[in-house]
Amino acid sequence: MKRIEVAAAVIRKGDMIFATQRGYGDFKDWWEFPGGKVESGETPEEALLREIREELSVEISIDRYLKTVEWDYPAFHITLHCYLCYPETDDLHLNEHEAACWLDAASIHSVRWLPADEALLPLIAEELKNEAR
Q1: Would you say the pTM of this structure is higher than 0.90?
Q2: Upper half-sphere CA count for residue 20 (Cβ side, 13 Å)
Q3: What residues have CB less than 8 Å from 41, skipping those under 6 apart?
Q4: What CATH number has the domain bearing residue 78?
Q5: Where are the alpha helices (DSSP H) in the chain?
Q6: Nearest to 32 by CA among 126, 92, 121
Q7: What residue numbers bound the domain in which 28 lies?
Q8: Domains in the chain: how many in total?
Q9: Which of 21, 41, 107, 117 has the maximal Cβ count within 10 Å?
Q10: How far apart are CA 51 and CA 68, in angstroms?
Q11: What are residue 113's DSSP bridge partners?
Q12: How confident is the model at residue 99, as a pLDDT?
């Protein structure tokens, strides 16, 4: 089975997190945390900063590592490294995604998450209960 390593940003602003909707591929219209593949020679953190610049045209600060999710999809296995991040500005642009939204703890389950991303929701719900930054 093909294996891919990905870094994802759980971008937080106050008591909200940022979700993006895929506009392509087998999982078109499903929701995910933005990020992308870790390239050869990159750390997950380096890949995350690069991918967020490419996907959202914004700089983020990585606050801390949250969790790594291992997930088997039908065609591949994903290793998803997740980090709590904060945007440097409010000016996020969708360069690759179909849509995006900010979700709070009450609305976090209102979108159809990719399974690996959905596995993070209990942890993220706990994070959102913590004091807003």
Answers
A1: yes
A2: 21
A3: none
A4: 3.90.79.10
A5: 44-56, 115-118, 121-129
A6: 121
A7: 2-129
A8: 1
A9: 117
A10: 17
A11: 31
A12: 94
